[in-house]
Amino acid sequence: MTDFSGQTVVVTGAGGGFGEGIAKRFARLGANVLALDLNAGEADRVAADIVAESGIAKACGADVTSSQDMARAAGLALEVFGGADILVNNAGITHKNKPMLEVDEATFDRVFAVNVKSIYLGAVHFVPQMRAKGKGVIINIASTAGVRPRPGLTWYNGSKGAAITLTKSMAAELAPDRIRVNAINPVMGATGMLQDLLPGEDSEEVRNRILATIPLGRFSQPRDIANAVTFLASSESDLITGSILEVDGGRCV
User: Total domain count for the chain?
Assistant: First the structure.
């Protein structure tokens, strides 16, 4: 089992769902965790849970679309832990599954700000810390939506396609700095976003229709994504960069 003792991981969207699972998994493996979330109370809760289990964590309420907030988060990482070794760009939102022309402009802008601009701001504020350390890891949580899009989620699909392309380009550009960049493509997950991703109302019938498109027959869980993220962040994957790992139960086969 990989030991992340002495390393600092910054997880965005850590107040629930995949982000909470990722933050707690890293803490159990010895990492110092900076848990970022727009909901400061949920970030505090996750950090407190980690500390209660004898882990090391600090919470930070931050909007990942705000350069000011991300600069403050980076400053906190530097002050408390000596800077970030690993950045997990997990924060993400979607629009309600609906015809593409029914998504209003403000929602479109917010989806791209949270899912795409946040990757830019994470790089702006945390790559300098990694360069100062001589190495680092960035993991973007993209989606199977970026490679095998479902109707009704067009603009969300596009934002995740952007995250995938950014991952590959960042990996190529940051390799000389020994900063590895990879992405995870989860299949639809059992998180708070599920009801918006589903076509129609959340019901057993609708869920079964989606599950029928996933060969292994289940939605992704936070533990699935956390296990994949910690592998890609570990020294066991130190020749892997620019890769997109599908954690999808065979959805994209």
Answer: 1
